[in-house]
Every structure is written in C-alpha cells, then in structure tokens.
Amino acid sequence: MPGVPNTPQTFNLGSGFKFQGGGGGPGGLKLEHRIGVNAPAEVIWESIYDLASWADWNPIYPKVEGAVRIGDTLTITQALPGDQPRVIRPVVLDWVPNDQLHWRDKRFGGLVRSIRYIEIETLGEENCIFSNGELFSGPLVSFIAGHRGRRLRRGFAQMGEALKARAEAAWRARGGQPTSGA
Fold first, then answer.
1. C-beta of residue 27 within 8 angstroms of C-beta of residue 44
2. pLDDT value, residue 15
3. How many domains does the chain fold into?
4. Is position 140 within any domain?
5. Helix (H, G, I), strand (E, B) or coil at 74
C-alpha cells in the first residue's frame, strides 16, 4: 500500500486489500477490534455502506457525509471516548461490497498518516467476523500509541458492538436465526 511501508497485507484479486498480521511496519502501529457477528456479510454491509444511517448506530462516527467511491473525500464527525468531537476528512481508498471499506487520513500536517479499515470476514452463511481498526505510520506515530491509542481501541470496540447488535437484530427481523460459532 503506498505510504505505508511494509504493511502486512494480502491481496485477493477481485476483493481488494485485506489487512492482516502484526503492526503497521517499521515505526508503525496497528490498533484493531474484532467481533463475531451472527448475520450474513450482506446484512452487515448494509449498515456500513449506508453512511447516512451511521448516526443511528455508530457511537464514534455520529455524522458522515459523502459517498463510498474510491477517491472521494468523506466529512466525518469523530467522537472518541474521552475526546471532544472533531471533523476529519479522509479519502476513500478502497471498498468491496460485503467485504471492506478503507480510507486514508493525515494528522499533524501529514506527520501521522493512517489507513482506517472496516472489514467483514465470512465464516459461514450466517456468521462473520467484523474487524475495524487503523494502521498508523509517520514520525509522530508514538503520539497515537499511548493514551490516544486506548481511546481509539475503546471506540473501535464500541463501534464493533453497536454494529453487531444492529446486524443481528436486522437478521432476526428477516427471519434469520442466530447460529453458534461466531
């Protein structure tokens, strides 16, 4: 991935980049939350793709404007636990329906660069792993690692729990039955 040296990743033709493995490369940082969801990827994706609905369920991104199109800039209000809400303007880097959404952002005049990823890993017809996290690089990445990193992890966990609850409720409402194993 340009701008993120030695980022652990795999590329599957037709399904974009999937971030896996350890940290964000030399001097990099990876923060992530993963959670099992008893719903198909399509049901999870509906909530991710519908940016206008994020205000209804997403505790760390209560307002999002823009479109899921590669190269488009989103305007997002970010409300991390313990922080004042702030507006960020990331650029959509990649997206694949029912699979992933990635955007890139810069902080501190470009001294910290990040790739935010939201990914769905299908385990079976009715269960998935939902991952959301961020890969950081740049000379000020150590600033993110400490206190701010804990807030980000808490926020990612809140987002994962909220999406799980929303997707599972939507799936039950459609007559889907929860399964064990996710």
1. no
2. 40
3. 1
4. yes
5. coil
